[in-house]
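User: Run a structure prediction on this.
Assistant: Running it now.
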Amino acid sequence: MRITLFFFFISLTTLSFAQKNFSKEISLISDNDLYTSVHRDGYYTNGLFLTYRVIKNDLSNDTPKRIYKFQIGQLMYTALRANIQTASLHDRPFAGYLYGSFGVSRFYNSNNIFTTDLEIGVLGPNAKGKELQNFLHGFYNFPEPLGWKHQVHNAFALNLNASYLHYFSKASSNTFDISSYNTLKVGTVFTNVSTGIYSRFGFKKLQPYSNSVAFNSNLNIASQGYSESFIFIKPMLNYALYDATIQGSFLNTSSPVTYDVMPYHFSLELGYRYYKKRFLYGYTFTYHTKKLKSSRIKKSNNYGSIYIGYYFN
């Protein structure tokens, strides 16, 4: 299914389009540990995110651009070996999280960005993680995942997320820049805070933050004659207070397999973005240290993300 969608989007790039700017974007992000190794299939094992963005311009002299985001997302977590049925042998809880969200990104003349998102959804069997993984395993002819019968139980999900990117400086050639990046999540699924650095390395001159695919802010700038190509790196230090996919929800404390969170963990994202002729393509490799207190779990894990975006009016 993902492969079919991928080649469908690529084939459309051969079409001709009139020279114009675009005010809307629809994108699909697919996360999977198989994108880093065919031998990996556990922990954060799959994520799908369908997103629609639209721009509103000229709000004030200080914030000339504001972009609204509507997203449907599903995240899926399993033990390292998904076909083990015995609950006591699971080194991580099975959990699904399904949500819809609305977000606003505010882009300032100072090159800073402030983003807020509100997520509403469900944690547990109603998130349909079991059903999706059964479908994917059948598609790839993998063994049936049997551990879902011990997954985290159903609970209402409500999360408020905020991030702030503060611009530091750039190279005189305008092919490198660096900023601080900070996030806060508070809710019934995730409560944590993170801080780190975001840097871009351009194969051509970098666009300002308010006009770059790095932050999905090139709406009303993107056109047939406009392109971007760069590598980015984002190391982050994270402090977790609560994670319902690990601890179970405090709204439903009957989940059969739970663990305590590891308060501090480190993450690193390394990725590439390319935009041309209405289309955005990207890949991100994400590495993180262990997120829960389980003696059997590996000290680190990684997964890959494929990004495909399409711009239109």
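Residues 7-18 have pLDDT under 50 and may be disordered.
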